[in-house]
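Summary of Year 1 activities. Much of the first year was spent building the evaluation harness for sequence design. The harness presents a backbone, in tokenized form, and records the residue chosen at every position. We chose the following record to illustrate the format because it has been used consistently in internal testing since the harness was completed.
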């Protein structure tokens, strides 16, 4: 598993205008047919009802890979065998300035279960975004474009 531990040395701990950065580990879980897993944010969280790639915030001292494995087990009951650091994206929301560490996952054990009562859905690669998974979080949208750009033409 790729180990990335964001520290003061590796990425700014605050945004350009001084907001604290919330580090988030996000899983792009991809099946052999290229479909990927999206989940709906449960009630009680900012942007409840929006769709996203599953994941969550790093706890103090935690690596991205460890946070990802913990969150995907907690939220979906998946046992992550391997994850691969892929892209990092920062987004300034009214509720938080987030740094999203997107990791690709091709190797896991188990079938997803919405342990927090959340809906989830496998989305086909390429083509239009399924209305069933809208609205998407603003900072999840580029990921779908990155995945589509990797498809053979
Ligand atoms: N998981 C996930 N979070 C995303 C995506 N895009 C995006 O902007 N975010 C933002 C939304 C939130 O501000 C933050 C994730 O925090 P969260 O509240 O879901 O984290 P968590 O599960 O650890 O929450 P909690 O412990 O506070 O309940 O990242 C995405 O695709 N997946």
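For this record, the design step produced the sequence shown next.
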């Amino acid at each position: 598993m790729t180990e990335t531990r964001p520290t003061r040395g590796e990425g700014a701990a605050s945004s350009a205008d001084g907001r604290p950065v919330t580090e988030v580990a996000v899983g792009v879980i991809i099946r052999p047919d290229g479909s990927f897993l999206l989940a709906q944010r449960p009630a009680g969280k900012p942007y409840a009802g929006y769709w996203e790639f599953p994941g969550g915030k790093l706890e103090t001292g935690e690596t991205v890979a460890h946070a990802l494995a913990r969150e995907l087990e907690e939220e979906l009951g998946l046992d992550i065998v391997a994850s691969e650091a892929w892209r990092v994206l920062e987004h300034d929301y009214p509720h938080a300035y987030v740094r999203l560490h997107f990791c690709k996952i091709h190797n896991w054990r188990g079938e997803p279960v919405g342990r927090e009562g959340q809906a989830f859905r496998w989305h086909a690669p390429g083509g239009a975004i399924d209305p069933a998974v809208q609205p998407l979080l603003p900072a999840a949208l580029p990921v779908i474009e990155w995945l589509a750009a990797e498809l053979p033409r």
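Helices lie at 64-76, 141-149. Quantitative recovery figures across the full test set are reported in Table 2.
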